[in-house]
Amino acid sequence: MLRRSRFAGTAPAVRGARSLARVLAMAAPSAARANQAQQRIVDTGVNLGLWQVQVRLFDTPATDPAMIAYATFAFDAITQLVDLLQPPFEDLDLQSVLDRIARYPEATSRMLAAHRASYVAGIYKVFRSRLSVLYLSTRGRHAGPTCASAFLEVGYHLGRAQVALFAGDAYLASNARSMLLQAIRLGLDHASCIGCLFDTERVWASASRTGAGSASTAQSPCPRPPRSPARSS
Description:
Layout: H1 17-32, H2 36-58, H3 65-82, H4 95-102, H5 104-107, H6 113-130, E1 133-137, E2 140-144, H7 147-167, H8 170-193, H9 201-210
Antiparallel strand pairs: 1-2
């Protein structure tokens, strides 16, 4: 369930808002049709993104009902995810992510808004690392992204984009939009090259083409020639 910022509708529109709104409108239904585990991952990402940007832009205290709701929804989604895990994630350490969420009020009580926002971003990064597949090579231990980590990125930047758009922060909205489109492209690449499930590929591809003009170019993880960048119509 995607929660709109309480600042929605009160801030001026930002340049490029229509384009971003189209991407958001296309991305949200795609996430909603994902399987249950992916849906929990998207839900977590969206709430972490909403939480992180609202703290950053509005210096919202930890006791604010919206902050409590974002943290609670993220915590619950991760808790529900535990029972839905399948190989290679069945032994995934999610307790450390939950502990970071639970410690937020105490750990950030003396922090400035920017540092509290960084703490929330750190929760997202730890969770993303947990959703990456670890493997050994001749150069040591590495973490490889998956469709699951791409879903988390889509949700996180979707949440960031919503608050930035509603708050009228053009720079942050543009950055979130670019990262959202990059996450979609990488998810499509992961589905193609490692065979994981990134549901509703046609909708994702359409969303990616919608905003291709200003999105950053993502590098494919597949050992094949990179795709030609899409052009805006």
